[in-house]
Amino acid sequence: MTVMPREETISVGGIKVHTLIGGTGDPLLVLHGAGGNRGWRRWMAAVAERHTVYAPTHPGFGQSDAADWMQGIDDLARFYLWFLDELGLSRVHLLGHSIGGWTAAELATMHPGRIDRLILVAPTGLKPAEGEILDIFYFSPEELLKYTVHDPASVPEWSELYGRPPTPDEIDIATRNREMTARLTWKPYMFNPRLSYFLPRVEAPTLIVWGRQDRIVPPICGEQYERLLPSATLHVFDQCGHLPPLEHPDAFAKLVLDFVDGPPRAAASRRV
Amino acid sequence: MKLYYFSEMPHHEYPDAEGDKYPALRLAFPNTHFSPAAAHRNYQRYLDEYEFADEAGFDGLMINEHHSTPSCVNVSVNMAAGILARTTKRAKILLLGNILPIQENPVHVAEQIAMADLISGGRVLSGFVRGVGVETWWANSNPVHNRERFEECHDLIIKCWTTPGPFRWEGQHYHFRHVNPWCLPLQKPHPPIWVPGTASPETAIWAGRMGYTYVPFLVSFEVARELFDYYRQGAAEVGRAVTDDNLGFLICAVTADTRAKALEAGRHFVWRMGPTLRGPVEYFSPVGMRSRAASQFALKARSVPLSKMSYEQLVENYYIVADTPAGVIERFACVKEELGIGHLLLEAQESRMDHPTTMRSIELMGKTVIPAVARM
Predict the structure, then answer these.
(1) Which residues of B touch A138 (CB under 8 A)?
(2) Which residues of chain A have pLDDT under 70?
(3) Superfamily name and number for B2-374
(4) Under an 8 A CB cutoff, do B282 and A139 touch?
């Protein structure tokens, strides 16, 4: 039977964070990308069979409260450490996609001992050694959608997510998501020039996932993350753009489960 | 009513078919189509026209600033102000204006405006603008901070002009540990402040609250009246009376010896209404730059975009006035009656309108139109 989530509002520093929570087992925190929290997706339900999935909506996005004072992804990362405090989670698996992946990487450099396994899915955060991160703000949401996946026809949940025109409320939320993304990532655009110096501090075994046909964040960034992180493996999906969890949900869920449920780590971090 | 002369200093020096290949002339059209030789000639010519407008009796000379666009290659309103401060004698110099949100050093802006005011003998009218989105892209300034930066930059400039230094400024977006400009305006407490508007109710309310002269640009009478109502709302909040002198309006205008000649010259304004405003909405209004209220107001204000109007419609609806001096006087009287303004700003040269046509228009304005308008 498909695992379904419950909705909760977690208050962090006075900011109410809309959060989906589902499943049982070790906690897995999932941080969404610039497109916002797309809800309880097929891959999450599969992972939730063996783990408790926490999928919050970032402050300033969707139904969560605003945090206009935030100025960068490092603020968001620090905020999620506080979020974990409020949930009483001392150690989690952490998965982030796109700007959520960047947030996850920043968080892991701030408190390495708090992360058991780290999964970065097409994260921004590093300046590409070649090419450029697509400037998403030059495009309307409709145009941008064309760049996000390799082939919409092969995305199982495409119709459910994008098969009808958005309602006025959905347009309002999409605008809110874009505004908050601009607030967090405008300059330098989508990367932190200091992050590469901190990544070697990350202790957690890390899985990096990319789509070979990603047109938003150049796949070469995956190689850069792999080089900079002490214990990282890069997995590249073929026939896949910027949204591996949506484009290959079943294979993605299996990849995540195999990685997270792999052999236990030899020793707990001294920084726990 | 006072009249102001204005040219965007355009650089329409390329085949139009080349511009049509790109999604927008602003930002996207490659500067390989910029001609330094033509620009050299044009700057001389445009500055000559400004000097002639001063001699002809215009009450003010308006200058502005844009970037990454052939529609306006005046890339420094303060540099142009410095030139006109020295080369003209009597007209006000209306900077409309400095684009505050994209400034990195408001103290330097305060110094430059003060220097122009000093050189000109106190003729500067200092306009402050939020800019169109294109300038935000050009400066790589975060659009979600646009209004905050506008207000903070304004506050610091005013403090530079009104508070003895040295002092320290630790704000939200600007941080200066030592502010003590040794260049202060001649006018006291500072040059008059002007603010333009096209769609933001918040800007109109703010300008009203501050008592600044507020000027809607190229909108219908109906929209201008609505913006003026917002302005009055802001003024009422602080108990400030609103007079004609607080309100202005900008249109395109040219005159000639015959109506046919004027209408022929007026066609050059169509370029600025259409091709130079063509482009993705994200270029002109990047995410977060406008509030929801302003976005909704903009949709209403531009229910029919200027680019979709025919030349005849633009003339009929007072976006463009092109007529003999007598006809122009009649049209300006109508603007005055409709809006009750004290300042009428004329975008009086555009696109490929040539030098003789522009000079003749300025001359005729000076001989006949300006004296008539002064009595309105």
Answers:
(1) 280, 282-283
(2) 266-272
(3) Luciferase-like domain (3.20.20.30)
(4) yes
Asked if B288 and A183 come within 8 Å (Cβ–Cβ), the reply is yes
Of all residues in chain B, the one with the smallest CA distance to A172 is: B292
Within a 13 Å sphere around the CA of B233, how many CA atoms are in the beta-carbon half?
Answer: 12
Please state the φ and ψ torsions of residue A20, each to the nearest 5 degrees.
-95, 135
Q: What is the CA radius of gyration of chain B?
A: 20
Residues of A whose CB is below 8 A from B142: 182-183, 186-187
Q: Name the token pair of B328.
A: 């122009």
The pLDDT mean for chain B works out to: 96
Q: What is the pLDDT of residue A269?
A: 46
* pLDDT of res. A268: 46
Q: Structurally, how many domains does chain A consist of?
A: 1
Q: Does residue A215 form part of some domain?
A: yes
Could you report the per-residue pLDDT of B24-61, keeping only the tens digit for each?
999 999 999 999 999 999 999 999 999 999 999 999 99
Model confidence pLDDT, tens digit, residues B214-270: 999 999 999 999 999 999 999 999 999 999 999 999 999 999 999 999 999 999 999
- What pLDDT does B295 receive? 78
Contact B125, B93 (CB under 8 A): yes
Beta bridge partners of A55: A20
Q: How far away is chain A from the Cα of B141, in angstroms, using its nearest Cα? A: 8
SS3 B199: coil
Question: Three-state DSSP class for B165?
Answer: coil
Strand partners, B6: B62, B347
CA distance B1 to B332: 9
Extended strands (E) in B180-327: 193-197, 213-216, 248-255, 320-323
**CATH code of the domain containing A160:** 3.40.50.1820
- Residue A222 domain-assigned? yes
Closest residue by Cα to residue B321 from B339, B308, B302, B334: B334
Q: Which amino acid is at B16?
A: D
Give residue A105's domain range. Answer: 6-260
In a domain, A62, yes or no: yes
**What was the pLDDT predicted at B296?**
78
Q: Which residue from B143, B280, B281 is facing A182, i.e. has the nearest CB?
A: B143
Going from N- to C-terminal start, the domains of chain B cover 2-374
- Distance (Å, whole) CA A217 – CA A32: 15
**ω into A156 cis (within 30 of 0):** no
Q: Residues of A with CB below 8 A from B282's CB?
A: 137-140
User: What pTM did the predictor assign?
Assistant: 0.95
